[in-house]
Amino acid sequence: MMTQVSSPPPEELVKQWESEQERLRQQVVEDDTEDWQRSPGFCGLQRVGGVDLSFIKGDEGNACAQLVVLSYPSLEVLYEDSRMVTLTAPYVSGFLAFRETPFLLEALQRLRTGQPTLMPQVVFVDGNGLFHYREFGLACHLGVLSGLPCVGVAKNLLQVQGVFKDEEHQSQIAALQKGGDSFPLTVASGKVLGKALRSCDKSSKPVYVSVGHKISLDTAVRLTHSCCRYRVPEPIRQADVRSREYLRIHFPAAAT
Fold first, then answer.
1. pLDDT computed for residue 1 by the predictor
2. pTM of the model as a whole
3. Distance of alpha carbon 111 from alpha carbon 62, whole angstroms
4. Which of 14, 27, 91, 199 sits most deeply, having the most CB atoms within 10 A of its CB?
5. Cα 52 from Cα 35, distance rounded (Å)
6. How distant, in Å, are the alpha carbons of 48, 99, 111 from that of 160?
7. How far is it, in rounded angstroms, from Cα 178 to Cα 203?
């Protein structure tokens, strides 16, 4: 049955979410905390995770929540968990985490309980981390609540705190010559909240990388580049591909 949850949320709910984001924001660690992060070749990193939600077309309430764990550096899938979930929280720009995080945490908990030796050492999130209206996007939310290092990788630029997709931004993108090249996303306050990364030689369109939790921005950018066979880092790409495939198999009448 199709579920529509697009009604506007009460002001009280938004205020509650803002307060929760502010509280959790204080717990974000923006530095490298693991030995492998300080190694030029990420020596000691063996497992990278990716999460994503894919929706049935025309249905805002039912989605496939996906977790994948890949080997590193070979980027082969070691584990996958696809599960249909019903989202009850409304979608509000800037508060995506309140819709999606509970189901991603559940997926990580199932892995921790069932096959703890496959727990990822870092999780890539299809969305933003610190590069967010209140500097607390989905990747920060998942990182703080899971305790795992997290990296936010967004496919589109969130126009936030004075960063716009204007001529200057387009010229900076044009100056990215090869995979691994990047430029900082500097907000009005002067803080650098993320970087635009040309993730591979084959794609001139960048991705937008920001810290989620327990990793520095430079390490997050370097790690993202090392996980890209294509434009989107492989953990997120595989999570997206597999969640869409799950919907195609289980809901063939509803194209995603």
1. 43
2. 0.94
3. 22
4. 199
5. 27
6. 28, 21, 35
7. 9
Looking at residue 57, its pLDDT comes to 87
Query: For the residues 137-146, what does the mean pLDDT come to?
Result: 98
Backbone angles phi, psi at 193, to 5 degrees: -105, -5
Stretch 18-30: mean pLDDT: 98
Asked if residues 129 and 140 have their Cβ atoms less than 8 Å apart, the reply is yes
Q: CA–CA separation, 149 vs 146, rounded Å? A: 9
β strands within 72-132, DSSP E: 77-86, 122-126
From 23, 49, 70, select the one nearest 126 (Cα to Cα).
Answer: 49
CA distance 4 to 12: 21
Q: To the nearest whole number, what is the mean pLDDT of the chain? A: 94
Q: Is the peptide bond before 73 cis (omega within 30 degrees of 0)?
A: yes
List residues bridging with 53 in a β-sheet. Answer: 65
Q: Is the pLDDT of residue 7 over 70?
A: no
- Written as six digits, the tokens of 29 are 């660690």
Per-residue pLDDT, averaged over 91-118, amounts to 96
Cα separation of 148 and 161, whole Å?
A: 27
Question: Greater confidence, 8 or 192?
Answer: 192
Contact 105, 117 (CB under 8 A): no
Could you tell me the sign of the dihedral formed by the alpha carbons of 113, 116, 120, 121, in that order? positive
Q: Is 91 helix (H, G, I), strand (E, B) or coil?
A: coil
- Given a contact cutoff of 8 angstroms between Cβ atoms, the answer to whether 254 and 56 are in contact is yes
Tokens of 141: 């939310």
Say how many C-beta atoms besides its own lie within 10 A of residue 218's C-beta. 14
Lookup result for tokens 């490298």:
32
